[in-house]
Amino acid sequence: MTDQKKNILIFVFIWFLACSLGIYLRLYTLRNNVPHDVEEQATFRVVQNLRKTVNEQIEKSYPTLSLVEKQRVAKDQFNKTLHNEKQKVREAIDKAAKQISQNIPHDQNPVYLLASDSYYYYNLTENIITTGKISDKTQGSKYFNRLMNAPHGFWEPLRLYPYIGYAVYKIVSVFNPGIRLMEAVSYTPLFLTVFIVLFFLLGCRILGCSAGASFLGAIYLLCAPIFLRRSMFGWYDDDPPNIFFLFAILTVFFYGLKNLHRRKIFITCGVVCAVLFTLYALFWQGWVFLASIVGGSAFFILLYNHFILRKQKLTSTLFLYSSLIFAGLFLGVGLVFGPKEIFTLFKEGWVALQDFIDPQLSLWPDLYIAVGELLAPTTEQWFQMMGGIFFIAGASCGLLFRCFQLFKKPDDPQNFSTLLLVPFALIGTKLSFGAQRFETLCLIPFAFAFPIGLQSLWHIYKKFKIPRMAQYLILILLFVALTIIPLRTAQSMTPELLNKIFNSTWDTALSKVEKKTPSDSIINTWWPPGHFIKAMAHRRVTFDGATINKPQSYWIATALLATDEREAAGIFRMLNISGNDATDYLLNQGFALSQAVLIIKSIMALDEPQSRRALAQILKKDQMDHLLSLTHGKAPPSYVLLYNDMAEESLQFSFVANWNFNKVEKINKNPDLLKAVPKHGSKQFIPFLWKIAGGPPKYTPVLLPVAEKGTAIIFENNILIDREAMTCTINSAKYGRGIPQSILYEVNGEFLEKKLPNATLPFTVLLINDRTGPVCMLAEPSLANSLLLRLYHYGGNGLNIFKPLVDERDATQRTKILVYKIDWTKL
Questions:
Q1: Is residue 334 classed exposed, middle or buried when 0-12, 13-18 and 19+ CB atoms within 10 A define those classes?
Q2: Dist CA 94 CA 61 (whole Å)
Q3: Are 331 and 274 in contact, with CB atoms under 8 Å apart?
Q4: Hey, how many other C-beta atoms are within 10 angstroms of the C-beta on 244?
Q5: 3-class DSSP assignment, residue 112
């Protein structure tokens, strides 16, 4: 067997082995797929047993404590056990769930996609199946999505990823003809992972890494939590193709640099790079970032070669190679999208990138600060998601070693690739510390540098005078350990990495929405479930994860926190008739944004004649006519959807709805005030924004009952409510001691509020008849009386315009979805 054939066989073997191990890890969600209701039963069973055990321990250890004190100590011990033993609790739940689901047929246990963005691409894949294309309308680099940003629809960047999912669906269907589309496209990241590993290993070979170091590099890449999470079975998002193109383009680029003395090869590589870049532009708007990195590195390579190496003949070759890539790139993008779109794409790409890296103080409240993946990671989180300290240390050694080579061995053929990897790693690190989303970009140069680092450390190790047999024995032991440790670590971390939001409760709720609502309906809700609604209910949404930072967020939040249902319904009517057009119209008439918002809010609860009287001193007749056509026209069928997080995490609604436009306008007009704005990402930035919004509201989570005394119930934190006299006293170290302002409750479907005399605390108490029994919570009076909490906790009782349509909950009520119809005849 020739050396070439031997090397090919070794390469294929390590590719196959690495892919097999990586795919096994990524099939965790399929291997451990159990019905959501079964998982809820298992969770309920394990938690109840744990609570029972803790209560028995407390009873035995503290027999003289009062019942209330025992409950408090038991709760603290229960929470501490859940936190400290979360891995064991998770394993117990998984084991119980598997036992319960053993006899459940596969067709009763559907696979659901992970996260929410997966449903965006799923919906587009459905379009391909039903119509043969993503959208009926395309223009340049955009396609029109009629379900987004209702009522107008939205022009989104064109993405071909759904066609990859469609191809995978067709391939999988050959082997399993009856497979559901959702389950089939769940395999898409696994298909792409195979090709990612292929190009990674090819890149390692081009960079001069040994087979062993390349294999370990592949294992650490596959086990890096940021990559593992975003290529898991069911993660049908654009991260895998993004990572694929990053590796593929860099590998081809490196191969061309290595073969500059072979004209046909480097010309072919230049053409292939240009084609890959053109395709990349069809998959991710941020392709401009890599183009800039490659372009900047090519410039430094030219300078290094011309002034350090002084190889003038090679300079012209390098210039030809770089020109070929970027001329081909511009030609390709121009042919695909049109010549005018090239600069538009560059501009949009940079603007989007800058919005993430260095966002400005916007006139509208910034919702990006509420998106987890756009927040800055802590140093500990960064190391963990990037693959751990050993991976980062090994990659850093590789980069440092190659930097020394630039000057120690200037003729080393790998030096040109170093001038790309080092800047990429530095810029990627800076970006990833600004937003977790960019850790995938940062991973690429570190992944290539890691096997280089291992190899450099091995060369150093070989210099020690150790017997050859002992040397190789240590090498084998290290190799096995370095393979097993990341795999075991990744396997134990996998459950924590998953983002399983969608489940059978969501599926049932949205199926009912589709059946019970007209096809032209608009569903008003917060942004996270927007993609779910489009994909599963096929209904229009006000905004979603792709249109998160639109002014619609302000109006939705304002409607949900309104204490007057007419005002809330008026806002929904305006949004569903014309979106934010009314505000834009007033801005075009010369009003400041703060003025425009106040004008619109002043007429939301009024009918048209009342609105005309209110506007008569502000607007001319033609202005008034146009504005009212945008706010008081005929609205389409409209609905409001609420779910757990909206009621339990209502801080963001207060932040958005209470945004002080006037303050922001003053800051933006005053250079001194603008300079005093804390840097985005600093510890002072969020408190600064809250100051603009008037500070966070005071409210508690739902509080459970711990004891009963006659007609009174004692809730957590020693809140006592007498249900007969409807009085309340609070004796809590956390929430104060005294009497709240009022109690909200319902009797026979009637919603009531009782004002309490001699009130001393700034809270209203919500007494809620939950399906599992009475619970309560404390909130500021305006929040307690908001549409949001009245719809969520009281089923809309006492409201006239919002009518219940769907109520779906799971066994533990960790998923609770309510949908209300807006009855326009009542407005």
A1: middle
A2: 31
A3: yes
A4: 24
A5: coil
Question: Using CA atoms, how far apart are residues 785 and 788, in angstroms rounded to an integer?
Answer: 8
CA–CA separation, 20 and 6 (whole Å): 21
Tell whether the model's pLDDT for residue 357 goes beyond 90. Answer: no
Strands 154-157 and 773-779: unpaired
Residue that has been written with the tokens 């071909």 in this structure: 160
Which tokens in the block code for residue 636? 């389409």
| DSSP secondary structure code for residue 746 in this structure | E
> How many whole angstroms separate alpha carbon 263 and alpha carbon 317?
9
The stretch 502-531 carries a mean pLDDT of 96
- Percentage of the chain with pLDDT > 70? 96
Distance CA 6, CA 429 (A): 38
pLDDT tens, residue by residue, 749-804? 889 999 999 999 999 999 998 877 899 999 999 999 999 999 999 999 999 999 99
| Cα separation values, 713 from 707, 734, 743, Å | 6, 19, 14
**591 token code pair:** 């009003």
Q: Which residues of 38-77 are buried (b: 16+ CB within 10 A; e: fewer)?
A: bbbbbbbbbbeebbeebbeebeeeeeeeeebebbbbbbeb
Range of lowest pLDDT (210-219, 350-359, 742-751): 350-359
List CB contacts of 816: < 8 A, sequence separation 6 or more.
Answer: 643, 644, 808, 809, 810
Assign 120 a pLDDT band (cuts: 50, 70, 90).
very high
Cβ contact 630:577 at 8 Å: yes
pTM summary value: 0.92
Q: Determine the distance from the C-alpha atom of residue 44 to the mean position of all C-alpha atoms in its chain, rounded to a whole number.
A: 28
Window from 11-25, 321-335, 355-369, 726-740 with minimum mean pLDDT: 355-369
Token code pair at residue 291: 């183009």
Burial of 464 (0-12, 13-18, 19+ CB in 10 A): exposed
**SS3 category, 726:** coil
Specify the amino acid at residue 600: I
As a whole number of angstroms, the distance between CA 242 and CA 164 comes to: 13
Tell me the three-class secondary structure of 48-84, residue by residue.
Answer: HHHHHHHHHHHHHHCCCCCHHHHHHHHHHHHHHHHHH
pLDDT of residue 574: 98
Give me the torsion for CA of 517, 520, 523, 524, rounded to 10°.
Answer: -140
pLDDT recorded at residue 400: 95
Q: Could you read off the pLDDT of 649-659 as tens digits, one per residue?
A: 788 899 999 99
* Residue 411 confidence class, pLDDT cut points 50, 70, 90: confident
If one compares 48 and 252, the residue with the highest pLDDT of the two is: 252
Task: Specify the 3-state DSSP secondary structure of 803.
Answer: strand
What number of H helices and E strands is found in the chain?
A: 36, 17
CA–CA distance, 240 with 217 (Å, rounded to integer): 18
- CA 243 – CA 448 distance, rounded (Å): 13
**What are φ and ψ of residue 737, in 5° steps?**
-125, 125
On average, the pLDDT of the chain sits at 90
List the one residue out of 748, 746, 728, 747 whose CA is nearest residue 738: 728
φ, ψ (nearest 5 deg) of residue 339: -55, -40
Token readout for 187 is 């395999």
Dihedral pair phi/psi, residue 714, rounded to 5°: -100, 120
pLDDT digits (tens, 9 = 90+) for 480-496: 999 999 999 999 898 88
Which residue type does 165 have? Answer: G
Distance of CA 42 to the CA centre of its chain: 27
**Side chain identity at residue 388, one-letter code:** G
